[in-house]
Every structure is written in structure tokens, then in C-alpha cells.
Amino acid sequence: MKRILCAGLLAMLAVTQAFADEVKVTKAWTRATAPGQDSASVQLTITSKKDATLIGVASGSAQSGEIHYMAMEGNVMVMRALESLDLPAKKPVTLGVDGIHLMLLGLKAPLKAGHKLPFALTVKFADGHTTVLKLLAQIKPLDTASNAVQTQPQTDAQTEEHQHEHHHQ
Ligand SMILES: [Cu+2]
User: Fold this and answer.
1) Domain count, the chain
2) Cα 132 to ligand 1 centroid, rounded to whole Å
3) Closest listed residue to residue 37, CA positions, set 158, 142, 155, 146
4) Distance 96 CA to ligand 1 centre (A)
5) How far away, in angstroms, is 100 Cα from ligand 1 center?
6) Which of 28, 93, 149, 151 could form a Cys-Cys staple with 44, CB 3.0–4.6 A?
7) Is 108 part of a structural domain of the chain?
8) Distance CA 123, CA 93 (A)
């Protein structure tokens, strides 16, 4: 009896794993929050085996999640929500550079360095099926430089803006 149950569980795990492997997420991290800060930007690299779109981000630790991009409007840098983000087959897409990032809004508790933040991504494939990836973001100290700063020094100002203020229009 026990043996049959185990085999069943293993089969289920194998199926889950196969689905998870359609999309690979690496280097998911965020920063510890400053006092009074109730939103967090999650950075990561995501690669889908097949053409897909990222259609959602959520966390039990936040009220809502959005895919954001930063844009200049006049002299002001603003953030706007994207409905979805293209994930071309086999092309790693890094969120956290070029102004595109994941934002968790309405954090229920401050994020502390050294802890992990659970979150989930919803990916929709070209054939219409969706998968939800349950992930953990490493929480790094508040002063950790972003991916953007490491690879593109000119985006420094955007990153600053992003840490201190959140514009929604
Ligand atoms: Cu944002």
C-alpha cells in the first residue's frame, strides 16, 4: 500500500518538474526595504523554452504585483505597468535592466536581508496554456547595486529614482 502511494507521488512530482522546466528562472533577488518603504522590485533572469509571455507576478507577502517599465515623460521618470512581457523562445530575459522590473506593491511586512521572499510568476505559452512558477527571491542588503548598475552604469539615476519613489499615473 505504501509503495503504491509513493509511486503515485513520484509520478506527480515528475509531471510538475516537466512543467517547471519549460521556464527557467535564475538569480531572483530583491533588496531589504528601507523604513516606510512598502514596495519591492524583484530582479531575475527568466528563460522560456518556447515562445511565451509573462502575464503576472504575485506574492503572499504583498497586496499586488505588477510588471513595470520606466519611461521618461518630459523630465520626469515614471513607472508604468505592462500587461505582459514577451519571452521569446530560449532567449534569457533579465528583469532589472533597461527599466523593466517586477514590482510587489503593498508589502505586508518589511523585507529583511538574509531572508527569502516567496513569489509566483504566471507564464502563458503561445499554445494558450499557462503555468505558475513558485519561486523565492533572495533578500539582499538595501545598498546592493542592481543588475542594471553592474552592466549599464548610465542607468544609475533610474535605479536611484526607483528606490526612493514610486510614481503611478
Ligand atoms: Cu516599479
Assistant:
1) 1
2) 21
3) 142
4) 10
5) 8
6) 28
7) yes
8) 13
**What is the CA(103)–ligand 1 centre distance, in A?**
5
Supply φ then ψ for residue 65, to 5 degrees. -140, 145
In a domain, 3, yes or no: no
Long-range pairs for 106-109 at CB < 8 Å and ≥24 separation?
A: 106/38, 106/39, 106/62, 106/63, 106/64, 107/33, 107/37, 107/38, 107/39, 107/40, 107/61, 107/62, 108/61, 108/62, 108/63, 109/61
CA of 1 to the centre of ligand 1 (A): 52
Give the Å distance between the CA of 162 and the centre of ligand 1. Answer: 7
CATH assignment of the domain containing 40: 2.60.40.1890
- Mean per-residue pLDDT pooled into runs of 10, the chain (169 residues): 56 51 92 94 95 97 95 90 96 88 96 97 94 95 69 38 43
Q: Quick one: pLDDT at residue 9?
A: 57
pTM over 0.90: no
Give 79 Cα–ligand 1 centroid separation in angstroms. Answer: 5
Judge whether 19 lies within some domain: no
